[in-house]
Amino acid sequence: MSETAEQLITPTIIEQAMSYEEYRTMIDNLLNENKTTGSNHSEGMVKYTKMNVHRMNRLDKQTLLKAELGEALESVEQQWIWLVLTEAWCGDAAQNIPVIAKMADQTDNIELKLILRDEHLDIMDQYLTNGGRSIPKLICLDAETLEEIGSWGPRPKEAQEKAMKWKNDSEISNKEWGEKLHKWYADNRTEDIQEEFVQLIKEWI
Predict the structure, then answer these.
(1) Domain coordinates of the chain in residue numbers?
(2) Cα(171)–Cα(194) distance, rounded to whole angstroms?
(3) Which domain of life is it from (predicted)?
């Protein structure tokens, strides 16, 4: 983490960040007002958010963590904070954050905290992906010092490679791009994100 990022992620930011349950409640409350997070409350953005709630509900119910990942999580002896930059309208956030929440629930040593990207662009800009503000972005922090241990995001590696390939293909429309990406997530059934976190946790320990 750069010196700037270290100064930006303060105890106040962590204190004001949301739990997964608070994040989900906030999204439901916004949808009740026909809104989403951020400043764009267009019909399209609200529609994306409603789809994302369905995705998160499904993943909350269906995600089972692999034994190897459970063992890796149980081996964490330090106190960590997983700070995640997200937005309710983001499809990748909906596909990955429920799995991350399941991981954090496996151990008392990891606390998951979520903040909205567009309210924290100063932090987001320390964690760009190919120059873009791609989310979700997870930053693993030492709970006591808030020193960065590592980061992950916005997608599992294979999904990221395919997403960039499709995005650069002039014959694939934005709509098709989204459909292909979400089909990848559906077919993958959280396999890649779980495997990646097994390795990351070993590195971060």
Answers:
(1) 3-204
(2) 32
(3) Bacteria
What size, in residues, is the chain? 205
Which tokens in the block code for residue 21? 């349950």
H/E element, 165: helix 157-167
> What is the pTM (predicted TM-score) of this model?
0.95
The per-residue DSSP string of 81-128 comes to EEEEEE-TT-HHHHHHHHHHHHHHHT-TTEEEEEEEGGG-HHHHTTS-
Within 9-110, residue ranges assigned H as helices are: 11-16, 20-32, 43-62, 67-74, 91-105
The torsion angles phi and psi of 198, rounded to 5 degrees, stand at -60, -45
Q: Which CATH code is given to the segment(s) 3-204? A: 3.40.30.10
